[in-house]
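Work package 3, deliverable 3.1, input record:
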Amino acid sequence: MKNSQKLLEKIQSEKIPQRSRGLFVLKNIFFWLLFAFSIIIGGLSFSIILFAFNQTDFDLLSHIPNSKIELLLGLLPFFWIISCLIFLLISIFGIRHTKTGYRYSPLLVFSSSIVLSIVLGTVLFFSGGAEKMERIFSENVPVYKSLEERKISRWSLPENGFLSGKIVGKEENLIIEDWNGKKWEIDFKNAIIKGRLSLEKDEEIKIIGKMSESDIFIATQIGPWERMGKKQNTRY
Amino acid sequence: MKTTTKNCEDMSDKELVKRSLQDVDYFACIYERYEQKLIWYILRISSFSLEEAEDVLQEAFIKAWKNLNEFDENLKFSSWIYRIVHNTTITEWKKSRSYGKDKRQELDEEIFQNLPSSLDIEKEANQKFDKKNIQKVLRLMPENYREILVLKFLEEKNYKEISDILKKPNGTIATLINRAKKSFYETAKEKNISFII
């Protein structure tokens, strides 16, 4: 018996079915969608990285004599950097598994994914999408510590010389209430005022200085708190 | 039972694929058209015996049958079927080796030596080559280099076809061919095998 006849016999006797065309079309669409979705998420992550860098107090580094690396690592938005990298890899995986994806060189796929994420991320950053996304994320993901929360943590270390809160009174010294509700007396006689500040009641500020007693803080620099997304022109 | 009774010599591959989707008899035409070439190909990239190569080919065609709707008309049918046969051969070859049966040692030397060969380098250098020793060098080479040299110089596929068969970009294929050629000469030198007559 010819081999071709054996083949026909096997196909017919075992009733070997053919996979439908729709299945292959769907598979191809799935991988293109995976690519597109990953680029969008990668772009969003990149936009939040930009947002985080824009909001980060890198000048804090100059006030820390030791463990600058530790502080720098604390300032970097690792969650979003890792998210951006993961979705970059998923986008490459997606396009490589489309019907014709193998024809593109890995370098081309890699660089075009990066460029697309950067372009989309930059557009989202300037259109305010990054801030909204970050807020939605922090409101809906319990384990996620928002950029605002991280900023509060960094500026709630009076023993290390960093304090922040809202001005609740002004006499010879400023009276502020920190984010935990504790009242502090701020000696600001020798403090440098950076940024647009009138030091009036209800103004939110951040202070660099030295704790002298359990509720007295001697300020060397005072700047506006600059809530996320409501940044003033001058950086502190 | 149906057997292949169709007259399909004048039909193109793509026409045969279309008809196969309606009538399985035409699929036998495709099999017959490619059987010899693909058996040679299996033998060249593995060290299966002829009987085993026939089994591998049968299995590859069953896979092709199942996935016939996936065939993209922008692709050459030969590239598509070579891809399936290539993947099936590599899978089966690895499987057979993992069972501790390294057929490389049990190769039917006579079959292997009689495989048709038309290495392009022969034309390039205008020299006569000892086919037996060329096959010997190929068998000593790493699989990825061996398969690419087989496709380029023995199967005489162009870069685009090799790219479609191995699912790798053109640039990668060009690099692999260069490295494989280098590896071929180094292997021959290392093992002291002369293939120039």
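The first strand of chain A starts at residue 162 and ends at 170.
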